[in-house]
Amino acid sequence: MSKKKSIVTFAIFLVIIIALYVGILLLGKPAPRAETLGETMKDAVLHETMKVDLFGFMEVNPGLISAFTVTGVLTLFAIFCRIFVIPRFKEIPGKFQMILESLVGIFRGLAKSNSPEKNQVLSAYIFTAGVYIFVGTIFELFGVQVITTSGSPVSLPAPLSDINGAIAMGGLSYLFILGGGIVNNGWHGILGTLKEFSLPLSMSFRLFGALLSGALVTELVYYSMSLSFVLPVIVGVLFTLLHALIQAYVLTLLVSIFYGEVSEKKLEKPRRFRKEKKNSNNTITPEVSK
User: I need a surface site. Which of 142, 176, 250, 263 has the fewest CB within 10 A?
Assistant: First the structure.
C-alpha cells in the first residue's frame, strides 16, 4: 500500500513539474534583468552596491549581518542546552542526547587522533568552528530578506561567502595553532607554526572559493530560461549542503593536524658520550715485564 502511494505521489509531482515547464516555455522570454551575470558575481565578491545599514552607524556587507545572526542563534542555542538539556542527560540517551553526544564524539575523536597529548582545547575549538561553518553555510537556504541602502531587497548570504569572513576564520584558526605551539613547545612551537606562513591564506581562500563556486553555479542555472524553475532550488540545496559538510570537515581536519604537529613535545636528543681518543704521543704504554 505504501509503495502505491509513493508511486502516485511521484507521478503527480512529475506531472506538475512538466506542466509548469510547458507553461514557462509558452509564456516566452522572461523580463530583462536589472543587472548582468558579471555584475551579480562582482557584487557577490566585492559588495560595492548591496550594502546594509547597521543600526544607523555605518553601511556594511550583508555577510556581516549573517555572521551576527548565526553567532547569536548558536550562542542562544548553546546556553539553552547547557541550562535545560545537559543537566537532564540520562544513562539511556534519547534521540536529541544521542545526536549531541555523537557530534561531540566525532570532533573529540578527530582531535585525539591528530593530537594524542594535548586535545581538550583542540576538540572544543574544532567543534565550535565546524558547527559555525556548517550552520553558517546552510543559513543562506532560509532566504532571510533585508533591505539595502539603495532600497532593494537582498537575501542574507552565508557569512563565509564574504571574503572578509573567510579571512577572519582562516586567521583565527592560524592564531589558535600558533597559541597551541607557544603553550606546549615555546619557541620551538613558534618556529614550527611560522614555517606554515601560507596556512591562513590557503584556509581562507579555500572557504571563500568553495562557497562562491556554489553561488556561481546557482546563478548560472537561474540565468538560463529553460532551467530557471525547480532545478535552481535542487542545485542550490545540494551545493549548499555539500559545501557545508566538506568545508567544515576540511578546516577542522587541517587545524587538528597542524595543531598536533606544533603542540607535540619534542624529544630531547640524548647526549652522545664522546669517546676519548688519545694520540699516540699522549698515550702512556705500560711496561711489560719480561
Answer: 142
> Exposure of 71 by Cβ count < 10 A (0-12 exposed, 13-18 middle, 19+ buried)?
middle
Give the separation between CA 183 and CA 177, rounded to whole angstroms.
10
Q: Where are the domains of the chain?
A: 33-263
| pLDDT, mean of residues 248-261 | 88
Grid cell locating 18: 512538466
What tens digit of pLDDT does each residue of 90-145 get? 888 888 899 999 999 999 999 999 888 778 899 999 999 999 999 998 998 887 88
**What per-residue confidence (pLDDT) applies to 215?**
64
Q: How far is 249 from 111, CA to CA, in rounded Å?
A: 12
What contacts 2, CB < 8 A, 6 or more positions away?
Answer: none
Give pairs for 130-133: CB < 8 Å, separation 24+.
130/248, 130/249, 130/251, 130/252, 131/74, 131/103, 131/248, 132/70, 132/71, 132/74, 133/160, 133/169, 133/207, 133/244, 133/247, 133/248, 133/251
Round to whole Å and give the CA distance between 270 and 220.
63
The number of residues in the chain equals 290
Task: Kindly report the pTM of this predicted structure.
Answer: 0.75
CB within 8 Å of 97: residues ≥ 6 apart: 85, 89, 90
- Per-residue pLDDT of 205-245, as tens digits, reads 777 777 666 666 666 666 655 555 666 667 677 777 887 88
